[in-house]
Structures are given as structure tokens and as C-alpha cells.
Amino acid sequence: MPDLQTAAEQAVRYNNLVEEFEKRFGHKPSYIARAPGRVNLIGEHIDYVLFGCFPAAVERDILIACGPSSATASTGTGGVQAHNLNPKYQPQTFVPMFKTGGITAAEEAGAASTVHAEAAWQLDIDKRELRWESYVKAGYYGVLNRFFSAASGTQEHPVPVDLLFTGSVPSGSGLSSSAAMVVASTLAFLTVNNKLEGVSKGQLVEMAMENEKRVGVNSGGLDQAASVICTPHSAIFVNFYPKLSAEPIPLPTPRTIPRAIFVCANSLVVSDKAVTAKFHYNLRVVETLVAARVLGRLLNLPLTPTERPTLRVILTRWLGTPEADLEKEDVKSAIERFLPEIEKLRPTREGREPGEEGVTMKEMIELSGLSEEQFNQVYLSWVEVEAEYFQLYKRTRHVFTEALRVLEFREVCVRAQATEGDLPEETLKQLGALLDASHESCSTLCESSCPEVDELTRLAKAAGAYGSRITGAGWGGCTVSLVAEDRVEEFIAKIKEGYAPYRELSDEKLRDAIFATKPSSGAFVLKLDA
Ligand code: NG1
């Protein structure tokens, strides 16, 4: 249950959205779709290699008031009028086109590795530029192609839709505003078209993941799973292999010492994943995929020239045990045993300058054992990346040590839950140490941090946090720190004093930049009275 003040604030927000919808579109909305942002407590840049992560939904969210449009004349079949309460985001009208000639490879680049030959719906998404409506279109894509395509065997047409958005998840801050936008949009289009019934949470996560790829980022499923599946009071341990699964894990709550809660602090360095994807996010995806093949070869594991196994799959092949027989504890001990093998990837050549310990494109192709043409087809035809040196060793080391830390984090929480009597402070210290180690790895091996975020984590530790780390994709965005609940105010005051970009902020802006958060509920749709 939210506290009374939060409930009252939310009621005002929902009412305002409904009233504004009516003013703009001349009719009442039928539903409100809501999807929260998430804070990833631990497990960074490992979802796309299919290792488990540990997120919780945050209270900040995206709301969409929605309903069938009466403006068919201006929007056409399945046309959309999308407005945003934030005046920064201009109203948009767009109509999907059903193309019988199929989708070209160029149009699909970054969205899928195969070229669709069949007829399909199309919406123009400009991947070179960040546009708010791209996330709305991305949400629409999956609904159209799943429920209104020739393949779905239906003659039905999508209905025209009116949408009004409002959001409280800061964008580009690592709290997954993009996934919240795509999940909420997917939900809105499903609901207004009467297709939500029969769509399971797992299917919704898969649709949202596919949909988000349309914006040009080859993300894993962490954010979408958290936004859809999370429940209040718990984080979730979300696993992606051999299939998507999620386990709610309550965080330890000691009785005689104050419990610890999570504080998010935005560095105010905005990192736009879609725009920087080729030298940041998508590059990490490609580096880890190529590393998996190279490691597989070094370990003499079976590999076909056309497949693209992830590091998680390589671990399974190395173990030789069917995945279904593996328990979490086994995965943990498997990773521990596997860690020395990673050293095989460490570049050994002498005469390299520091910072040049990666491999060039030419070297990487040689190490893959593929011809240049095969390599391009498998690893580069669907994504654009740019780097002088590709860091196969560092990224792999980050992936396996981080995957291990997630399992250790989960284990500490599960053990704490099973403990009779009070929890020692040591439990919180153990969680904190894992957060710190995760940050160090993100900063030095994954290289997804930035000086401002590193500074925030240092300040957080000095201000008494049990642990502090970057959360989300990185290169800016937020930190998450584990802080004793009775010290949160003092903690925030110290960060404000220490972090120069916070000093000039008004109280309201500061509340937006740094805030304590409790695990909140996942996405839902609210049906409004007619
Ligand atoms: P955020 O923080 O939302 O940009 C991204 C990916 C996740 C995950 C993290 C890094 C998207 C939508 N999300 O999160 O899947 O890979 O980075 O752990 O791209």
C-alpha cells in the first residue's frame, strides 16, 4: 500500500491526466496504462548475454491515458494521435502502413538479424535521432505485426487511437524510461484494440523487448521484465536462459538495527543510448558476442559458422550439462570454476600501450576463425559499431564476475529471509560490498561509467552508504546506494554538499535528482468508467 501522501499525489496526477485528455481530444479516455521505471540493484550489462539480473521497479512511472479515436478522418486506419503533457514533446500524428513488399534489410538493421520477406506493418522510426514518439511507434509495431498481420490470419483493422502521456522517470538516467515508455505503449495499443486478454506477462516482456529493438538498441530483457513483472516490496531475480523466469526476492529487513533502503542519485549527465549506441551500448553487445565465439574456439567447443552464441551459452557448452539440470547454485559454482578459463582471452602480445590491450577488427576476425564475409554477416550486418580496439577480455571478465555477484547477492537475501531472529549488520555490509565491487567492474572492465558517476559513488561511500554503484546502461545516469533508512536525510544532505552539480538545484529539482525508492508494483492497465 502506498502511504497516504503518495496516494493523494497520485490521485491528483491521474485526474489531471484524464481531464487534460478530454480537453485535447474531446472525449473521455477509456483506460490508463502504467509502466514503472526500474532500478537495477546489481547485474549490469549481462542481460544481453543471458545472465540473471536483480532489478526492482521504482515508484516513478509512465502513464498513458488512451482510448479509441473519433478522429478517423485525420488519422486513418490504425492512425494515432499522441500527445504528451510535457510541452517539450510535440504532439504527433502517424498512420501505420501495411507494406506488401516486406521490410528491407536496411529498414530492419538493428531490429533483427533476419530479413522479413512477408508483408508487414511499418511505421517510420528515425534511429539517428532521439524522438519521443519513436518509443510509442516501437510499442505499436509488435501489436500490429502480431495481431493484425496476414500471418496472424485476421482481416481485422487496428482502431485509431488517442494517447496522452505523462512521465516521472527522468530520461537518459539509467532508470529505464525507455522501457517504461515501450511497455506502457505496448499495453495501451493492446488494450484499446481489445487484445490484452490472453497475453501473459512473459509474452508482454518478449513483445516489449522486440519492440524496443526497433528504436535501434539491441537491449536484453532486464528493463522490460522489471517493468512488467515486479511486485511491491521485492526485487526480482530475473533469468533469461534457457527461458525467461523471475523470482521475487524480498530485501533483508533487520529488526533491531535500522533497515537499509536504496537511494538513486542522478549524475545529471544525460546519456542517450540510442544515439551513442555504436560506440557504447551496441558495441558492448558485439564485443561480448564475439568474445563468446573466440572463447568457445579457444576451449575447443562445438560452434557452427553461422550461429551467434552468447557467453552464457558458452558456459553451458563448457559444462556439458543440460541446462534444465542446473540449479542456481550449480551455475554459481560453474562460473567460479570457469573464471580461470577466461584468462585465455587476455591479449598476450608485447609492445602494446596501456589502453590498447584490446584487439583490432582485423585481429578479432582472425580470432573468430570466420572469413571476413562470414564475420560481417554474423556479427555486423544487423548493427553498427565503431571502435579502434575491441575489449574482448575485459568485457568477458566483467560479465562472469558480475553474474557471480548477482548470484551472491541473491544468496545473501535468501539466507537473510530464512534466518530466524535478528539479522546482523554484517548482512547489509555484505550486500554493500557486492555493490561496490560491481561498480568497480562497470568502471574498469565494462567501462560503462563516467567521472561524474564515479564521483557520486565515492561521495556516497563517504556519506555512509553500505555500498554504491552505477545503475543501468551507464555513461552517465544514476547511481544506486544502499543506505540505512534512519540516515537517508543526512546522506542526501551530504551528497548535495559534495556534488557540485547539485549545489545550485532548487529543492524541487533536487528531489527529482536524488531520492529514496521502495520496490514498487509492475505495469498495469486501469479501466476507467465510461
Ligand atoms: P537502461 O539503463 O534502461 O539504458 C540498458 C538496457 C538493459 C541492460 C542495461 C545494462 C535497454 C532498453 N536496456 O538499460 O537491457 O542491458 O542497459 O545492464 O537498452
TrEMBL record:
The keyword Transferase applies. Pfam families: GalKase_gal_bdg, GHMP_kinases_C, GHMP_kinases_N. Its EC number is 2.7.1.6. It catalyses: alpha-D-galactose + ATP = alpha-D-galactose 1-phosphate + ADP + H(+). Residues 147-228 form the GHMP kinase N-terminal domain. The keyword Cytoplasm does not apply. It comes from the Eukaryota. Residues 423-499 form the GHMP kinase C-terminal domain. Belongs to the GHMP kinase family. GalK subfamily. This is Galactokinase. Pathway: Carbohydrate metabolism; galactose metabolism. GO terms for molecular function: ATP binding; galactokinase activity. Coiled coil: none annotated. It comes from Polyporus arcularius HHB13444. Residues 19-68 form the Galactokinase N-terminal domain.
